[in-house]
Specification:
- The chain is an alpha+beta fold.
- It has three domains: 203 residues, Transcription Elongation Factor S-II, Chain A (Up-down Bundle); 107 residues, no CATH class; 147 residues, no CATH class.
- It is 46% helix and 15% strand.
- The chain has 20 helices and nine strands.
- The strands form two sheets. Strands 4, 5, 6, 7, 8 and 9 form a six-stranded mixed beta sheet that branches. Strands 1-2-3 form a three-stranded antiparallel beta sheet.
Amino acid sequence: MSEHWRYPFLPTASAILEGVNLDSLLDDYFYAEARALAINRLETSATRGIIDIEGPPTNDETDIVLGYVISRLVLAATDNQALVNYVALSEALRAEAHLSSETDEDLVEFVNNLGVVKVELDGSNFNMNFVDYVRAASKLREGDWKLSNRGVSNGVVTLDRRTLIRLMREVIRQHLEELPKAPVEIKDKFQGTIEDLKSQVSKTFIERIGGLNTVVNERQAEAMKELGRFDLSKAPPCFNLNMMDLQAGVNLPHPSRFFITTFLSSLNQDPEAVMRLFATAPDFKEAFTRYQVEHISGKTSGTQYSSPKCDTLVSSGVCPGPNALCRQIRHPLSYYRVMAESEKNSKSRLERILLATLNKETYPGKLVEQNMEKIGDFDFTYDNVEKRKLSEAIRSEEPSQVSVKITHFQGRVYSVELPSEDRKLWITKASVNITEGNADYDCLSLTDWKVALPIEEAHYKSKKIDLIVKPLDINLDEDETRKLLLILDNVEES
């Protein structure tokens, strides 16, 4: 079997830790070279490099293995999942390069010693149980990796050498991402909690940890700042979840990459900016990514691909699950546009709210005009809001901050016909009722979903929420006038 300096994460490498004291590992001059190698591993990984540490005689095998252990301890102290993902991929790429030079017999020995999957040598090929294969290839979404394209005979998948080595890169990457906070050999010797252990490591490497976190944060922020007037707060959950994964160093499957590219292209984002966004991915290849982005956006193909609909995103596993607004729309671009409702001027916003509240199938032009004239020059801005009880807020002429429970929340897509126009106006609204004590109050419909979504969450969790409200007298029809509360905003928890 090959030396442990090539694969320091193998369980058998832990024998080198026998007799090693944590305090000595962190402070003694004897282990200074191991600590330097540890920082080299981490800094190289954080900056998108492949770890290149030479073995004996350039570096002692014990120093290399201990350096790997120290890098694990520092990684735990940083508490930065993005860095964990970057390191896992960099270590996996390093291992892949070494595996390419192993004999078939040593390759089998390595795979089985790692203990994640099992493999057997079959002439010039390798056999793996289909269950192990499915687990190993679960995040390799390209068609060639699907079990149906591999063929299964008696529960066994047969792989050639090149395919097995590429698969092991993925196995190692996932394995290293999921390792515990500290090697068990270290943790068992340490008298204290894992948090105490991390604290001790942090004291030794405080400047290095700060530098590593800074590099990772800059790497993640670099691409996002390239986007133009794109507002993440308006993006649907499917986009934000995949962006979080991308920024955390997760290799996104093809459907997610396609969605991000088409979604941003549809919002007129520059292909170059979109391409740079993927630079945060651990397996980023600039030329390949550029080709894909420019092709999908239509820059080189002449055809701009459309962003998938919600049902397609659900079936392809891109959707993490709908929120209250998702359930009212069928396309992620509609979500973004609905969330931009608050950017309309005050007159347009108020008109939309009245249309949703009046709940007529045809445009109640005269009634809306009467209410707009009655309300006058309404302004959605507010400042120096006084906290009041709901019973006091309904009688006040000024906006009030109230702490209430949501007794009713219902989203709905609503259509009205516009006068003298051959089209309909679609309104995505939410009906809300709020209560304080035993008093229940009706509110004007909400069309601003930046406000509606936190309210829906409070309703779902049955918890109080602080809102800014203002009462308005509204003509519901020619014979009925009611005082309803207009919800201007929610007050975020400090």
